[in-house]
Request: fold
Amino acid sequence: MNGLYIHIPFCRRKCRYCSFVSQPCIGPPPAAYLEALLSHIRLYARVDWLKGEGREITSIFIGGGTPSLYDGKSLARLISACRDNFNCRPGLEISMESDPNSLSLDQLARCREAGLNRLSIGIQSFNERLLKIMGRSHNRDQARQAFCVARTAGFENINLDLMYGLPGQSPDNWRQTLNEAAALAPEHLSIYELSVEPGTRFAELSDRRQLTLPAEEEVIEQENLTCSLLEREGFERYEISNFARPERQCRHNLNYWRNGSYLGIGAAAVSCLSGLRLRNVEKTETYIKMVRQGLLPLADGEALSKEASFRESVIMGLRLLQGVSLTDLRLRYVLHPRDYYGPVLHNLIKRGLIAMDGDYMRLSAAALPVANQILAELV
Ligand code: SF4
Reply:
């Protein structure tokens, strides 16, 4: 096992584009949920198989939702419980997602002391009007302030989440957000195009024709702007949506893109262990109740076939600009993509969309703007 993911499904309020498992929470998140997480960690720590040879944790990611709604003491307890109960590699990456208006110096200092060494701040935009349209609970000043507080607390590895392709967003407007983000000099940027997901407020507005998104050419311009501006600022695009300074790639996410194994703690979290995919129950009340009874809070699971796992390794690996290692695929599955995909892959190579580059198969530069369509051909 390489990664440990902990899910905190609470947010100040639901953003209008969000389809993640999270629920609005007034005031601090429930203490009972934190206690359940601690018990869940201890439950897994008793599973002998998870302690076996090579089952070392190389990264911990506390995500959500908004984990930073918990105070420093609670978060420090959570981090310490992970470190005390699992076989953690020295110097492992420990990340946490956060919202700008839920961070304080005291809280972050406690987290740093407990071992948190990477902070991700969900800024999304520095434009007040767009923040309101998205239904975010913070404003521009709070975003800037959160970054300064994180630096003062000693964080030397900070990610900012940003979004483009937003309703009413022009390329110029996006350039301003990118410039403002770059001026803060974070180590990492995760940059996603807005996708209108079913069940969200944006989807409702879109159905009623009340959501006007930028034209396709404008979105392409925003994407091109992102790559050129960030390259100039010293960031390397290492995954379709992720940019990092040298040596600052997110190790936890690299494990996902390399289709490595991971353990999920918390409501709705997913684990992927030795070809088994397990999903925890989604309702927080059920989760708390099952853990209190000493039960692993599993909702369902599936054993992935060798072929399904191979396809996942290819598709996830192609999200990395480096691509997917053919040697790794051969060692794991005794399969070569050319043999498995036959004419489909041959055609993508012929069209210049996929390149074979030494030991790596990767998307070409021309394929990156239409990556999702290409990956869909390989599912
Ligand atoms: S803060 Fe993040 S997880 Fe919470 S509602 Fe907004 S987008 Fe969703």
